């Protein structure tokens, strides 16, 4: 009985450790079978399978009728697209829905009925799955001949409910919507007011039997439109941007704080699990914590855990979940010869990296110079042999630099630096390409035509070598602090933009496509020409005939800012209600999403710069280097709590 209780305790602690590391909630069952199900559900293979299922459901829109599997979406020269048989995509969709049902069942069982009733996302998950199954049954009973599929409107929900980042983004957008609505209402009032003023001032009157504008001087038009643009474009639109950013400010910090509060609760629960069981010996607890932290190098063993495990426990939690720089580079190899030791000191010095950056810059300058000189020459006058010989000299230096660094740091020490892996891979690739060029074309006395030979011509291989050399020059980024800060900010921006991409691309475009495909499919068949119109501008491939073409059209409306041509064409071919559709898409994408995108960029940049300002002070007071991504979490965790113990 004691052994079973210790095994359950170990499983509970291991599960809480996993929840702490991944910022997951701890409100779930803790019996033995539930813990096994929990570990199985959050295993890598199950989560990857669920993500693959969501991707398959979303990608079905490209295959379902109307299919996007065609060479061109231009109705003038469109080839017959692939139309799957009725039941093919429906069978795949039903398999995905069954997987979603299993996912819902497991989540509901793990958290229990009480937590399920409080979780709005799971309730919505249940409703969406039920509606999708009902619509699927109706579709099959109608032999796939229905025009509107309601379940296609609901598919983006599967992606949203499975991403915590998207949920936080939607919560922030929900908080911002009242202020956005007030400004949009003010914009509508502005449009109505100036519309009425324009109709009154510039109304047409009949003078001597002909129609004429009552106020013809150009000054009146200028004053009217300048006033309209200043108030609308420069005041109200910028006010909208300011309001959105003001509401969006602190989004990342609040997101981190929410995750940290969840982690604090998990740490407290893990501590209570270990502290409340008197039957557990110190040796047993020490072994389990060592197993949990085995993936991290630890120079201090936890032998003191037998007497008092509070501080070591928190130390292991911090090291395990916050990754407080437990990684160390392998020691330098030891050489007995004084000459080799002296060479090791020279080649391991930072100035060797500076010299390598200078040589890489010189190589890029040489390539640019040769390209500029060859730009004025004809194809027959160009000489690629000189550039290849220059590149070979630089590549030999890169090889020398790689070899001496391996000598100084050792093989494992060399590979422990990411910059060295980047340099070494490109150096070997460049050397292989250069040797291939010299063997294939027997430079510099080659009789081959450089424009055509083998799989790749000489010019193509030379361009490839030059591109790799220029790409290798990116090695200077980590060595320049401000440039490294900007680069890391861009990487963080890409990570945070995943939520925006999911909501915008998947949700908005999918919903707007279904609405447009239902009412505006196959209407671009009039091939007449009129200057400045949809037909004259050649926008034929941009239509709502299939999902891929609809994505391109909606992107053009959002970015190209020529949406009046599409609105005019579709209002002529369908009804005037299509204007409301395009105005709604423009307000959603160009107004709201673009401003939210700007607000996110500002927030990420400010958050990154503020975080970097803590690093010098933190490194003076600790022997551990805290990564920037986890610095805020570390600062919040080390803040004393109101309970009867402190976390650090």
Describe the structure in brief:
The protein is mainly α.
Major sheet details: 2 strands, antiparallel
Low-confidence stretches: 278-286, 288-315, 319-326, 618-648
Radius of gyration: 32 Å
Distance between the termini: 35 Å
| Computed structural class | mainly alpha
Largest sheet strand order: 1-2
Keywords: Membrane, Transmembrane, Transmembrane helix
GO molecular function, one term: ligand-gated sodium channel activity
Membrane topology: Multi-pass membrane protein
Domain Ion transport: 82-203, 362-603
Structural summary, described in words:
InterPro entries: Ion_trans_dom, TPC2, Volt_channel_dom_sf. It is found in: Membrane. The chain crosses the membrane at residues 41-63, 84-110, 122-142, 180-203, 223-245, 349-373, 385-412, 424-443, 455-477, 497-515, 547-565, 585-607. The chain is mainly α. It folds into four domains: 43-162; 168-249; 338-479, Up-down Bundle (Four Helix Bundle (Hemerythrin (Met), subunit A)), CATH 1.20.120; 484-612, no CATH class. The chain is 69% helix and 1% strand. The protein is built from 23 helices and two strands. Strands 1-2 form a two-stranded antiparallel ribbon. It is globular, with a radius of gyration of 32 Å. The two termini are 35 Å apart.
């Amino acid at each position: 009985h004691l052994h079973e209780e210790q095994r359950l305790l170990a499983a509970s602690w291991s599960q809480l450790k996993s929840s702490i590391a991944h910022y997951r909630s701890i409100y779930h069952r803790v019996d033995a079978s539930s813990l096994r199900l929990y570990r199985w559900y959050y295993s890598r293979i199950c989560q990857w399978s669920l993500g693959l299922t969501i991707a398959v459901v979303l990608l079905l829109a490209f295959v379902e009728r109307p299919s996007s599997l065609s060479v061109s979406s231009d109705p003038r020269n469109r080839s017959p697209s692939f139309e799957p048989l009725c039941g093919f995509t429906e069978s795949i969709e039903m398999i995905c829905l069954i997987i979603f049902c299993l996912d819902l069942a497991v989540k509901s069982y793990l958290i229990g009925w009480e937590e399920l009733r409080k979780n709005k996302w799971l309730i919505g998950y249940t409703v969406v799955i039920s509606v999708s199954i009902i619509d699927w049954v109706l579709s099959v009973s109608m032999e796939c001949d229905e025009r509107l599929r309601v379940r296609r409107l609901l598919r983006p929900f599967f992606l949203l409910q499975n991403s915590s980042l998207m949920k936080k983004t939607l919560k922030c957008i929900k908080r911002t919507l009242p202020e956005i609505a007030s400004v949009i209402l003010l914009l509508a009032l502005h449009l109505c007011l100036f519309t009425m003023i324009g109709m009154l001032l510039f109304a047409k009157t009949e003078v001597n039997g002909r129609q004429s504008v009552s106020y013809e001087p150009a000054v009146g038009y200028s004053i009217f439109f300048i006033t309209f643009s200043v108030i609308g474009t420069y005041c109200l639109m910028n006010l909208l941007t300011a309001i959105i950013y003001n509401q969006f400010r602190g989004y990342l910090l609040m997101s981190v704080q929410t995750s940290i509060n969840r982690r604090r609760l998990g740490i407290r629960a893990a501590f209570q699990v270990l502290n409340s069981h008197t039957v557990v010996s110190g040796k047993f607890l020490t072994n389990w914590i060592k197993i949990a932290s085995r993936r991290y190098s630890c120079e201090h063993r936890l032998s003191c855990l037998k007497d008092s495990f509070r501080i070591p426990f928190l130390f292991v939690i911090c090291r395990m979940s916050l990754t407080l720089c437990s990684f160390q580079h392998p020691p330098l190899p030891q050489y007995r010869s004084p000459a080799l030791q002296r060479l090791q000191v020279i080649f391991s010095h930072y100035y060797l990296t500076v010299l390598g950056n200078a040589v890489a810059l010189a190589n890029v300058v040489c390539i640019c110079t040769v390209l500029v000189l060859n730009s004025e020459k004809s194809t027959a006058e160009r000489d690629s042999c000189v550039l290849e010989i220059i590149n070979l000299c630089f590549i030999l230096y890169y090889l020398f630099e790689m070899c001496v660094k391996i000598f100084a740091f050792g093989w494992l020490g060399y590979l422990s630096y990411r910059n060295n892996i980047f340099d070494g891979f490109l150096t070997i690739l460049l050397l292989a390409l250069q040797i291939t060029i010299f063997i294939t074309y027997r430079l510099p006395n080659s009789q081959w035509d450089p424009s055509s030979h083998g799989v790749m011509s000489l010019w193509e291989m030379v361009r490839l070598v030059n591109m790799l050399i220029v790409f290798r020059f990116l090695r200077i980024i980590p060595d320049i602090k401000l440039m490294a800060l900007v680069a890391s900010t861009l990487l963080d921006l890409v990570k945070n933009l995943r939520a925006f991409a999911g909501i915008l691309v998947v949700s908005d475009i999918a919903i707007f496509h279904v609405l447009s495909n239902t009412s505006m499919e196959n209407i671009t068949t009039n091939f007449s020409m009129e200057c400045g119109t949809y037909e004259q501008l050649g926008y034929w491939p941009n239509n709502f005939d299939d999902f891929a073409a609809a994505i391109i059209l909606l992107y053009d409306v959002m970015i190209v800012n020529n949406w009046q041509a599409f609105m005019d064409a579709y209002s002529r071919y369908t009804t005037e209600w299509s204007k409301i559709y395009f105005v709604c898409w423009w307000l959603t994408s160009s107004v709201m999403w673009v401003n939210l995108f700007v607000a996110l960029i500002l927030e990420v940049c400010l958050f990154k710069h503020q975080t970097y300002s803590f690093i010098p002070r933190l490194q003076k007071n600790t022997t551990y280097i805290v990564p920037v991504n986890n610095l805020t979490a570390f600062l919040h965790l080390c803040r004393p709590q109101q309970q009867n113990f402190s976390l650090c």
